[in-house]
């Protein structure tokens, strides 16, 4: 058995595990639910497809920065560690709690609710049972990951391979049907695309939500057997596979339905399959429903695996309750943090109202967190120019600057478009800052107490 790393977790994950963790974190429910919103905002096929490529490029710009930071600091915690090292532990705690509550717990709750709703295609749930099913799923994934990181990674590898293979088979089948019309790629739907507000205010937030997870492997850096080599590779490889799948899937939507059909479809994957195969609506619903459930389950399990590493890292530094930073003596899993995450996610399940509102809440938090850790790259380049850097971000300083600028514009647009959802994320900032000062004061008092 591998000896624990510096932060107490076992370095047992390989490049394959880390790459598939990124793929599973990215490819989830978003590709089934957000293309309609994007097509409605950008009703031209090439602009629609280009926006998905732009989302991949923006995510890659962030991944370049995270690859350098992660290789420099191969520790559990991701953003928290980078802000702690670059600016101040208080900045790390703010981003850490924002990531834990708004990004990971929020994503887990959203996926669990989506999974419970998707079961309606196969079974009839009693009235009011969906939240209970969602919570039960969160608990089940938490139990799997409580058995250790290898157990969670094994489940993730199997489910991810299955869902990617299923998506590729579905795309090939759609494109091989006689319902494909290449003329769809030259036909706009309605007015010219709104490249200002339409792209930045409506399309890109949805696309960035669908790419959420491109930085998944940085949170388990201390559990990689060779983090300085494999962490950058996992980020780029996972994002590359996911972007290719997204472009194939959205391209098949357009090839069969046209961009207007994508915008008008209530369930775009089902509409595409029904048009391509000409089979009964009930059979289509079950086919796509099974794929959505599989995809949702994979991303949910990956999110459950990743999120606790944030609070675990803060607890190891004395900036969160101690119980959150104690690995299980038998499995090595951060059990306390896993339990906290499950409790928060289940609480969010009970207050969720609609997918779009949760999407905006989660995406805004992602934008804030990734702006912060990219700025940390600039600070560390200036303050620690001679620090060992196993990987140096390509395109520095211009590529990270483009990434920050694009996300600042998106954040401002989201504040204008969805102020209530964004306010929830912003409210976490002073609460997280207050938690830092309380924790720091308690740590100081413990150090000064007589022994």
Give me the secondary-structure topology:
Blueprint: H1 15-26, H2 30-33, H3 35-41, H4 45-72, H5 79-86, H6 89-118, H7 130-146, H8 149-175, H9 197-210, H10 227-264, H11 268-277, H12 281-306, H13 308-316, H14 335-349, H15 355-383, H16 398-417, H17 419-448
Helix pairs in contact: 1-8, 1-10, 1-12, 3-9, 3-10, 4-9, 4-10, 4-15, 4-16, 5-6, 5-15, 6-7, 6-12, 6-13, 6-14, 6-15, 6-17, 7-8, 7-12, 7-14, 8-10, 8-11, 8-12, 9-15, 9-16, 10-11, 11-12, 13-14, 15-16, 15-17, 16-17
Could you say what the CATH topology is called? Amino acid/polyamine transporter I
How helical, in percent, are the residues? Answer: over 70%
Task: Report how far the terminal alpha carbons are from each other.
Answer: 36 Å
User: What is the residue-averaged pLDDT?
Assistant: 89
Explain this structure to me?
The mean pLDDT is 89. This protein starts with 14 loop residues before the first helix and ends with a helix. Helix content is 72%, strand content 0%. It has one domain: Amino acid/polyamine transporter I (Up-down Bundle). The radius of gyration is 21 Å and the shape is globular. The protein is mainly α and 451 residues long. The protein contains 17 helices and no strands. Helix 6 crosses helix 17 (419-448).
Outline of the structure:
This protein has 17 helices and no strands.
